[in-house]
Amino acid sequence: MSELFDQDPRDTAPPPRNGRSRALIITAVVLVLAFFGLTTFASIYTDRLWFTDTGYGGVFSTLLWTRVVLFLVFGTLMAVAVGAAMWVAFRTRPLFHPSSPEQTGLDRYREAVTPIRTWLLVGISVVLGVFAGTSGIGQWRNYLLWRNGTDFGQEDAEFGKDIGFFVFDLPWLHFLVDYTMAVLVVALIASAVVNYLYGGIRLQSPGDRLSGSAQAQLSVLVGLFVLVKALDYWLDRFDVAYQSGSLIDGVKYTDANAVLPAKNILMGIAVICAILFFVNVWRRTWMLPSVGIALLAVSAILLGMIWPAIMQQFQVKPSEADKEAEYIARNIEATRAAYDLDDVVVAPYSGSAPDVGAGGIATATSSVPLVDPQLVRDTFEQNQQGRAYYSVADVLDVDRYELNGQERALVLGARELDQQNLNDGDKNWSNLHTVYTHGSGIIAAYANQRGTDDNSPGTEIQWAEGNQGVDQDALTTAAGPDGYESRIYFGEQSPDYSVIGKESADSTSVELGLSGANDDDERTTTYDGDGGVPIGSTFRQLMYAIKFGETNFLLSGRVNGNSEVIYNRTPRERVEKVAPWLTIDDDAYPAIVDGKIVWILDGYTTTDRYPGSQRESFEEMTDDSLQQDTGLQTLPTDEINYMRNAVKATVDAYDGTVTLYAWDEDDPILKAWRSAFPGTVEDRSEMSDQLIEHVRYPEDLFKVQRYQFARYHVTDPGDWYQGNDRWAVPTDPKAGSNSLQPPYRLFVNVPEVEAEDGTQLPGGQQWALTSNFVPFGRNNLASFATVNSDATSDDYGRITVLQMQDQNTDGPGTIAAQINTDDEVRGLLRSFETGDSPISYGNLLTAPVAGGLMHIQPIYAARLGASGGYPILQYVVVAIGDRVGIGETLIKAISDALGEDVPDQPTPGTPPDEGGTDPGAGEQSVEQLLQDAQAALDDANAALADGDLAGYQDGVEKANDLIADAIELSGVDPTTTPSADASETPSEEATPAG
């Protein structure tokens, strides 16, 4: 190493050093390095233990070695390039320096550097190499996608290249080019500094200011830089395909006719400049290279900036709609494809009052949820909390279960551990990390039922699962023959870590909790699952003491030879750790699947490089009045222009097992990640039937789609440019701000609609996620959107948009204003507003009913007690057409709005063999029943034409039965309804009964 540099004849002996100061400096450096080294080792070592324990050791190995290799490769390249440039500059330095004030001044620096120049060269190279290697580590995503990417099977409109090139190849190629340019710039600077220090560059010399060797070295480095810049211009051409613009993203008229030709010209000029610099190695004149660089700079300004601006201002803007029409069409097509909007079905809808009576409306809306998951948290805790150290989420979840033979919507939440509610005296390390370790069970209430039925005013919500006042624990009963594990060690409110496991089988259990999911008795227990990392050895205890900064891992008697530590406990955190390439949905929700509580999460694959697609902020697109957090920490950038729900993930609430399932198996980005991390994502076919029943359409994806569809439902470029039919998501009337109305999950009756290709798509009741659209800047209702959220249905994921034919249909804001100003509503609520029971408005829900619309809003009042207050459902308000009704139940509200008595309705959830109606019978609309009746009459007439009198009689009787059902559903007086008579009646016996 010491022979890298020759000894300069002017070198003098170094000054003596202070030995004690040197020893102190070395000791301090060693201690600092030891500290960082030990903490880094502890972090990596404990991470390896965690990944191995969860069964994802392959993910840890792939991430670790990918980062190590990238660090070493790019760090070494930078260090070698810079070191070589400095070494060459020194080895080719002039042997004699001309006498000048400049050189005399530099002599002092040369004398100071001489004793340490070898170490200085190595140190500078290593430091720069570390910085370069660190930048390489940050490219692990781009590297793995480049290495494992496949074709999309679609080409972009401008360049004719497969979309996979833009998504997988281009980011990595850009990094390589940018990295190479950075290396050349740093090497050029280092070479220039050494040449100047040792006389190769003489700024004040009357003769040649550069030695021949210095000129050759600098010419080669600058020539290489300009040559790589030519490659950068070539890659920049493809960036135009997804660059942001004021009108649209992607290629526009000016880009295609000015920017792209300019890039090609600049690329050619850069190649010529590079050649001139290479020739300069022998010609020893800077005239031609200087002219080339000047030409490149001037061309970059004229062709790259001024000419496109002139074209945009004087050629495009005067007729922008015509000039950009082709490119707007491309943008529409790409955006709809990137956000999976191509198959959205838009159908005309009247939006008027429903075409049925009060009875029909009551039947069609009997499954609409009245229990608001945003408001009843306190109700859940007051009635089903069990212990003060338990709580539920601020906003509860809505899911469906098959109970008593019928699908029911439930509002539910996990009863999780909440250590914030412990007394201050109990918040010591032993209690926080070894005693209070887990939650217990699910709390659930029927979303559309109070008391035993909806005809019981004043009763509270009906519990389907809990630990107090529950006659039938429906979810536990439905769990299966293998029992039900109620303990929740992994949840959204779980503490950072817990130490579990007792020293021997005879030792006393110390973990405190309820004795069962539906039992209020307290007991101690010991975790016996597989979700913990063993920490029995002193070495592991030391590593975790360093990781968590806690000495009790080494000192506490609660940590023994059988102890395990569980950490990384929130569902999102666990999924993000094992699949760092996914963007996780904001809402993880609990479900009872195969006898266990599991958290279900949706994982997205995203990119911001889909050519031609509109790029927007993920956070902005998913923002609404309920939004609390996003998956931004897993996104390389907040801006995206492609999204797929590629993965469904589950996290076992007891043992923390993480399972990833490929949901969109055709997604090219998912295919690339599955190739990069083989064996981590299971096939969709591995999902159990019970799990499929609880899979639902993800909210964040639907929010992103509705955000884009608000503008991209328009497919004509001219109309899109004018923006006349642009929609927007309405603001939430109850939020009291500009927050957008969130999508709501409920059972809705979707009418039969016709797709663009003429296919008739069936209607009926669907478990759906719904949203409203209003015209941009207005309050009228433009459309109502639903997406089928039933994963067991063939129509799962089908988005249906009912577009209002009446442009004056009231939107949510107008409906809310009608409710708030209605005299009857104001009169009933006045006593609450002036008393001690404040009013809270629930979600304003919209439901299509028999060709019309109905709006429903529950109203809650606070029930005050000694232990605190909680909201109870006081009234239900409905808006049907221009009529508003209020009542203690939904049925009474409908009756009040229409001025009609509602026939007795079956108790929600009553199975057919217990006196209720068939769950499917009441879900058909009057229109559908009459269509079926007409079809039966057609069959009857066909049978009559064939001489089949028995078939004719059967058809007529079936038609009459269907007509009778329609009359009952509509609430119309049957005495005024004509019979389904046939004109070709052959005899009295064949005449259908009236």
TrEMBL record:
<dbReference type="GO" id="GO:0005886">
    <property type="term" value="C:plasma membrane"/>
</dbReference>
<keyword id="KW-1003">Cell membrane</keyword>
<feature type="transmembrane region" description="Helical">
    <location>
        <begin position="179"/>
        <end position="198"/>
    </location>
</feature>
<feature type="transmembrane region" description="Helical">
    <location>
        <begin position="265"/>
        <end position="282"/>
    </location>
</feature>
<feature type="transmembrane region" description="Helical">
    <location>
        <begin position="218"/>
        <end position="235"/>
    </location>
</feature>
<keyword id="KW-1133">Transmembrane helix</keyword>
<dbReference type="GO" id="GO:0005576">
    <property type="term" value="C:extracellular region"/>
</dbReference>
<feature type="transmembrane region" description="Helical">
    <location>
        <begin position="23"/>
        <end position="45"/>
    </location>
</feature>
<keyword id="KW-0812">Transmembrane</keyword>
<comment type="similarity">
    <text>Belongs to the UPF0182 family.</text>
</comment>
<protein>
    <recommendedName>
        <fullName>UPF0182 protein SAMN05421872_11896</fullName>
    </recommendedName>
</protein>
<feature type="transmembrane region" description="Helical">
    <location>
        <begin position="65"/>
        <end position="90"/>
    </location>
</feature>
<dbReference type="Pfam" id="PF03699">
    <property type="entry name" value="UPF0182"/>
</dbReference>
<feature type="region of interest" description="Disordered">
    <location>
        <begin position="899"/>
        <end position="924"/>
    </location>
</feature>
<feature type="region of interest" description="Disordered">
    <location>
        <begin position="969"/>
        <end position="994"/>
    </location>
</feature>
<feature type="transmembrane region" description="Helical">
    <location>
        <begin position="291"/>
        <end position="310"/>
    </location>
</feature>
<dbReference type="InterPro" id="IPR005372">
    <property type="entry name" value="UPF0182"/>
</dbReference>
<feature type="transmembrane region" description="Helical">
    <location>
        <begin position="118"/>
        <end position="138"/>
    </location>
</feature>
<keyword id="KW-0472">Membrane</keyword>
<feature type="compositionally biased region" description="Polar residues">
    <location>
        <begin position="973"/>
        <end position="985"/>
    </location>
</feature>
